Amino acid sequence: MMPSHPEAILRAVFGYEQFKPLQREVIQNVLKKRDTLVIMPTGGGKSLCYQIPALIFPGLTVVVSPLIALMKDQVEQLRQIGIPAVFLNSSLSPHEYQENMAQVRNGEIKLLYVAPETLLTPRLFNLLESLPLDCLTIDEAHCISEWGHDFRPEYRQLVAARERFPQAVCLASTATATPRVRQDIKSTLRFETSNEFIASFNRSNLLIEVQPKTDPTVQTLRFLERFQNQSGIVYCFARKQVEELAENLSRLEFSARPYHAGLEDKERKANQEAFLHDDIQIVVATIAFGMGINKPNVRFVLHFDLPKSIESYYQEIGRAGRDGLPAQCLLLYNYGDAKKLQYFIDQKEGTERQVAFEHLKALRKYAESDVCRRVPLLAYFGERYITHNCGMCDNCLAEEKKQVEITIQAQKFLSCALRSGEKFGAGHIADILLGAENPKILKFDHQNLSTYSIGKDLSRKQWLHIGDQLLQKGYLERTEHGSLRLTPEARQALKERQPILGVLLEERQPATLIGRQITGAYDEQLFEILRSRRKQLADDARLPPYVIFSDRTLIEMATAYPTTPQRLRSIFGMSEHKLKRYGQIFLEVMQAYCQEHQIEPPLPSLEKTKNAATTPGKKPRFIEVGERYNRGLSVEKIMLEYNVRRETVINHLTLYLLEGNSLTNTDGLPKSTLSLHHQENVLAEFKRHGAKYLNPIFDALQGTIDYSELSIICLYFLVGSQAEDTLPDGFPP
User: Fold this and answer.
1) Quick one: which of 399, 226, 200 has its CA closest to 302?
2) 459 burial level (CB within 10 Å; 0-12, 13-18, 19+)
3) Is the domain of 379 the same as that of 444?
4) Are residues 567 and 610 in the same domain?
5) What share of the chain is helix, strand, coil (3-state, %, to 5)?
6) 674 and 581, same structural domain?
7) Are the C-beta atoms of residues 557 and 548 closer than 8 Å to each other?
8) Cα 120 vs. chain centroid, distance in angstroms?
9) CA torsion, points 586, 592, 597, 600, in degrees to nearest 10?
10) 88 and 36 in a common domain
11) Cα separation of 133 and 40, whole Å?
């Protein structure tokens, strides 16, 4: 029997321990039959906000969705956890369509997914009028607004469905909406302002990086080398570039295929399915790819070219890390790409042209910023980001840049911009300063300017960086055609020779963001075995593997070694339905692996420890380990003596402390590799949630810290707690 309380449904049906921010509040609002607008980032849990009410309402929930792939994916996942759901769209044969209609008519279905065009047909209206319709959900609601980045006229007509079914509560949801778009959605659907729920737009598990685009193919190859056997998306501006890059990657034995609107429908669909089913790792695509792709284990998104707007960029990087585990996003940026977009903008007219120009201006400001990436990104959506250091972007992770006086260099650059008529971009100004003899210099007679060749003490890259800083400091402004114009502040600074501080870029290439473990420390051999078994089951059922279990679920299995149904039940994403359907299959894999490698599964709580470690006449293993450590045996020697992994020793020492024992030598404990800032954040969560379970800490930190690091800091937290809340030397290490 289906539970009737949201928390009970969350655990039993979906396999999650706790709600994400705002989910509970949204669900309660919907259950009270109050029309609701919910703005949540990708991966924030929008689907549960209508799926849980759908299981509580006695009648039907209709979900309007813009893409066939999205409907199919959602329905497959719901069926895997025992929820009766169907979709109606053009991908069905006439027989399948009639069959699904009959199930809806007979009251056998809880969730019906439809396209907006399908919902507005007399045929479906007549069917729904004969049924108790409790909820109308409009997914990707930004499509309603003409100011949204993906406006669809048919979405504007959905107000007719609202009028036709006034008894149904309406939930509109989206991941990307500026304040203006939100207002447009509410006014179109006639929502009350008070029923608006806006979660933070911050995706804290995404590591965001912008690199100057110098040799994009080489930069792409270097980036992809970090993600062996992991899924990712590479976005390009043009179809031709997609084809060339996909071909080059395939030739270099990367598992990659192209995706763009110019491909035959059959090939495009086959490439998408291969990506979803883990038959290939990389999709090289235009923006035609992605909307409705709910693949949770995308570990990276690379923008080979500049996206068209901040909203597009946010939505595209949002396809990474939907499982809550860390993922990486790289944007390759140069002025040439911006100029290419400007050319297309110039072909537009009126308001459309102005809107496109404002989008490009905001995107350039973001890419050229030297502050935390999250500050301008979230500000675009009306959110103020106040954290001092996010620890998950290139600017925050970079070494502190030393400010020096760049007055002379700034004066040279500003003078050159002024003397060349304020009609050129940074690249041309740099060429003048360097004394270049290219055709453009000669065409405009710029070799005769007094500023020609006065900047040979710096490289072109350094001059471009000077230009970027002068833009950020407000001494220059960029016209809509891309040329640089002096501001009144710049003219005053030149006249009065005011000192200007900035950064002189070093000639060496800045270090890329490598070395961060994307999914954390776990038993990789076991994970690969579990992943292989999952793939077999998925192929047999013709499903994407993540529909059976997410990577995060397998990683938790490969960390905790659950070898009993009770332990498996506590794993993230393990619903009762999936436990019955797949539990024994995966238990057998883990039991055989633990037996072969003589692994003693860790115990997740003190209560389970007490119940499990009671062999008559013999000390529990964790007591043995704790005592041997206190007698001077190092962690490494304990690993060798018991033939166990480091994580198992840490687990035993943790259980030893949980039993009320103490450790006499904290200097020999494993050291955390996290930054001091991250260690303090983790410690704060242990103080808030306690140390008996790691799952609440992992979720509170949104998966940005892996379990091995949490285990180490848990150890220090327990030692410190026993010492009257003072942490021992070595924490933070």
Assistant:
1) 226
2) middle
3) no
4) no
5) 50, 10, 40
6) no
7) no
8) 34
9) 70
10) yes
11) 25
Q: What is the DSSP letter of 393?
A: B
What would the DSSP string read from start to end of 181-225? HHHHHHHHHT--GGGEEE-----TTEEEEEEE-SSHHHHHHHHHT
CA 211 to chain centre: 19
Cβ neighbours around 374 below 10 Å, total? 22
- Alpha-carbon Rg for the chain in angstroms: 29
**Residue 215 lies in domain:** 206-393
Closest by Cα among 287, 314, 291, 317 to 302? 317
Q: What is the pLDDT of residues 482-501, one digit of tens each?
A: 789 999 999 999 988 889 99
Nearest to 232 by CA among 250, 214, 255: 255
Helix (H, G, I), strand (E, B) or coil at 398: coil
Distances from the Cα of 106 to the Cα of 78, 102, 164, 586, 710, angstroms: 19, 6, 21, 36, 50
As beta bridge partners, residue 170 has: 136
Write the DSSP symbol of residue 672: P
Output the CA–CA distances (angstroms, integers) from residue 725 to 14, 364, 502, 639, 728, in the order listed. Answer: 37, 48, 43, 29, 9
- Cα–Cα distance, 500 to 504 (Å, whole number): 12
pLDDT of residue 291: 59
Residue type, 426: A
Interval 522-578: pLDDT, tens: 788 899 999 999 999 999 999 999 999 999 899 889 888 899 998 898 888 898 899
Q: How confident is the model at residue 95 (pLDDT cuts 50, 70, 90)?
A: very high
User: Which backbone phi and psi does 325 adopt, to 5 degrees?
Assistant: -85, 155
Amino acid at 191: F
DSSP line for 48-70: HHHHHHHHHSSSEEEEE-S-HHH
Distance between CA atoms of residues 444 and 448, nearest Å: 9
Average pLDDT, the chain: 85
CATH of the domain at 537: 1.10.150.80
- Cβ neighbours of residue 392 closer than 8 Å, sequence gap 6 or more: 204, 205, 206, 207, 208, 704
Residue 45 CA, chain-centre distance (Å), reads 12
H/E element, 283: strand 282-285
Among residues 596, 622, 655, the one where a domain terminates is: 596
Token pair in block for residue 338: 């911006």
* Shared domain check, 615 and 531: no
CA 36 – CA 49 distance, rounded (Å): 10
End residue of a domain, out of 570, 596, 622:
596
Residues in the chain, total: 733
Assess contact for 455 and 434: CB atoms under 8 A. yes
Question: Quick one: tokens of 499?
Answer: 């000192």
User: Which residues partner with 62 through β-bridges?
Assistant: 112, 136
